[in-house]
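dude i think i finally got it to work??
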Amino acid sequence: MAEKKTKKDTPDKKGKTKAGSDKKSKQKSSAPEIKIPIRLYDYYKSDVVPQLMKTFAYSNVMMVPRLSKIVINMGVGAAVADSKVLEEANKELEAIAGQKPSIRKAKKSISNFKLREGVNIGTMVTLRRERMYEFLDRLVNVALPRVRDFRGLSDKSFDGRGNFTLGVKEQIIFPEINVDKVTRVMGMDITLVTTAKTDNESYELLKAFGMPFIKKEIKTA
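look at this
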């Protein structure tokens, strides 16, 4: 009596056994993965969510605020006279964010600054999901501690809708930037957009993520 072929040894359409196909698929899935964003997001679910639910007495986990996106903007006024400055800023922002930025154009003409409508004046990038968490991790644990005479962040930069913006004076605080190749020191604005309904909720969320605020000055709602 002939033995039945097991499912494991059944050949596929290409004549290969499924066992061989499974082995090949496992090899493909073993590609390097970004570990930092997974760690930070897991921390949000395991520690931040329970902490905020207790602080604000949320009745549902869906009410807990979360980080929605991070917008990084570099205004390059010198680009009006020298386009190479903007090219350099664009490359540096891409290195910092890990994502290709988009060029910003002037929305209107300003004669005092010799600025014409439509001229390239800056570069920006919007980070979401994995890249967002990866960038936040580097910002909090690597970049900000490298700021000279850093004493913490002021909590006065919330916009009243749960979003927080901080200004960085030098791009060289990010280790992705090779200081020896920098020809011009440039700053940037980093906006952390959250789903929080109040600045107080956003403050507690960002603080739980490790944002080094100096002192809480926002009144509790």
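Residues 26 and 45 are 28 Å apart (CA to CA).
im so relieved honestly
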